[in-house]
Amino acid sequence: MEFLVVLAVFGYIFYLRNYADLRTRSEKEVAGLQEGIKLYKDNQIQNAFDYFDAKIKAKPKSSFAYLYRGLCYKALGDSSAARKDMIMGLSYDGTLAEIHLEKGKLEFESRLYIEALQSFDNAVLYDGDQNQVPYHWRGKTQQALGNDIEAQKDFLKEADFLKQKLAQGPGIAQPKAPLVDKRLAINSLLIFVTSVILILSIKDAESIHLPYLLAAVSAISIGFVEPVRGWILAISQCILLLAGYFLFTKIPESSGQQELENFSLYGSCILTFAGSFIGGFFKRALNAG
User: Fold this and answer.
1) Which architecture does CATH list for 25-168?
2) Could you report the per-residue pLDDT of 87-138, keeping only the tens digit for each?
3) Using only C-alpha atoms, what is the Rg of the chain?
4) Per its UniProt entry, which superkingdom is the organism in (predicted)?
5) Is 193 exposed, middle or buried (0-12, 13-18, 19+ CB in 10 A)?
6) Can you count the helices (H) and strands (E) in the chain?
7) Which residues, at least 6 apart from 45, have a Cβ–Cβ distance to it below 8 Å?
């Protein structure tokens, strides 16, 4: 039984580490750079530069760190170094429209129109169905190259985007992420499996140590994978534990065994809430760092 419990715990941790976080790699990168991005947006350019410079030294393949260090170089007046950073960022992920767009702006300002056109073509390729800005800059570049017909097409496309946004109205708020989604459903299924294993460990254990260990590990995992909605999973696990124990198991006749199981059961519920809070704290600290 102990071997199965340990195997389940490590399997769950492996899943959380590799598959439960459904964000794209780019979204994870940006989440980990929020402190520096805020410095840049607050116009604390030198502090932002130092931040992204340190991030690149620690993680040399971070495309977004190169993007923002390049933007800092640009703000500090070094366009050549800025463009080199953009190129370096794209060498690690060539599908990032944001970098293609900013690189194209640098090239346009330096009158490198052919290179700028290629950059804006890529920005349109990777983000042209979501954003009008690449069309605007590609239109300006086509104009600078004397391609008036192509420029007009891009400006018309930009105008179509703006008309759609105007039709939506200024009061339309961005939709919030749903409270329940596929990711939460998958994690809820894992919570069900974990609860079953916990109940079996409570009935089989000779002390409180094994149920408490399993409850603590699963609870910390809950908070780590769902730092915002972890409370939903924590409540679900407690309900499943209590319902499963009282509805589907036999209450022991021995008062000593019943006391042991009660300690294991209610202690596991308490650890579920405490551990999910700790796991959420660790995840937010990891994202911030």
Assistant:
1) Alpha Horseshoe (1.25)
2) 999 999 999 999 999 999 999 999 999 999 999 999 999 987 788 999 999 9
3) 27
4) Bacteria
5) middle
6) 14, 0
7) 72, 75, 76
pLDDT of residue 72: 98
* pLDDT at 7 exceeding the cut of 60: no
State the residue for tokens 């130092």: 50
Helices 34-41 and 63-75 sit at what angle, rounded to 10 degrees?
20
C-alpha–C-alpha distance, residues 139 and 152, integer Å:
7
Q: What angle do CA 101, 27, 168 make, to 5 degrees?
A: 70
**Spans of all domains in the chain:** 2-20+177-288, 25-168
The chain-wide mean pLDDT, for the chain, equals 86
How far, in Å, CA of 133 to CA of 110, rounded?
Answer: 19
Higher pLDDT, 269 or 179: 269
Of 289 and 120, the structure prediction assigns the larger pLDDT to 120
**Per the structure block, which two tokens stand in for 49?**
């530069």
Return the structure tokens found at 195.
Answer: 């609860």
- With H, G, I as helix, E, B as strand and everything else as coil, classify residue 207: coil
Residue 8 contacts by C-beta under 8 Å, 6 or more apart in sequence? 193, 194, 197
Q: Which residues contact 197 (CB under 8 A, 6 or more apart)?
A: 4, 5, 8, 214
- Biggest alpha carbon–alpha carbon distance for the chain: 91
